[in-house]
Amino acid sequence: MKTMHKEHTLTKNQQIIFDLIDKSPEPMKAYSILFNVQKKGIKAPPQVYRALDKLVEIGKIHKIESRNAFIACHNSSCRVAKATAFSICEICEKVTEISSAGLSKYLANFKDKDGMKYSKYNLEFFGLCKKCR
Ligand SMILES: [Zn+2]
Ligand SMILES: [Zn+2]
Known about the structure:
- By secondary structure, this protein is α+β, with helices and mostly antiparallel strands.
- It folds into two domains: about 10-70, Arc Repressor Mutant, subunit A, CATH 1.10.10; about 85-125, Ferric-uptake regulator, C-terminal dimerisarion domain (Dna Ligase, domain 1, 2-Layer Sandwich), CATH 3.30.1490.
- About 30% of the residues lie in helices and about 20% in strands.
- Strands 1-3-2 form a three-stranded antiparallel β-sheet. A three-stranded mixed β-sheet has the order 5-4-6, with no helix packed on it.
- A hairpin with a 4-residue loop joins strand 2 (about 60-65) and strand 3 (about 70).
- Helix 1 packs across helix 3 (about 45-55).
- The longest helix has 13 residues, at about 45-55.
- The chain is globular and about 50 Å long.
- Bound molecules: zinc ion (2 copies).
- One zinc ion (ZN) binds near residues 73, 75, 84 and 97.
């Protein structure tokens, strides 16, 4: 399975859905994605879910689990689609992908007390953004 997101050729549906999420100023919920792509002719929800799964798998988008929403990857150094970290503002719900070499490196080398290392993580940090502070 590929976890790198180099140059993937997207299918037409994947491209439509990616563009939609990429243009959205905030993470998009699945129902909102469904609603918007129906206007572009993708009518069947399974088609949309399949495309979303694929986009997540190749790292073009990430899922914000606590919000059940999707956001385009804006972190060019984010090479591991299954290792992501986000800051989420508790007031305005602004979501930012954390791009920190220090954090990635720390987590890549991190072991728990039994020596288990982690190949995936999906971290969400909550606080107040600059605007809301
Ligand atoms: Zn990313
Ligand atoms: Zn805020």
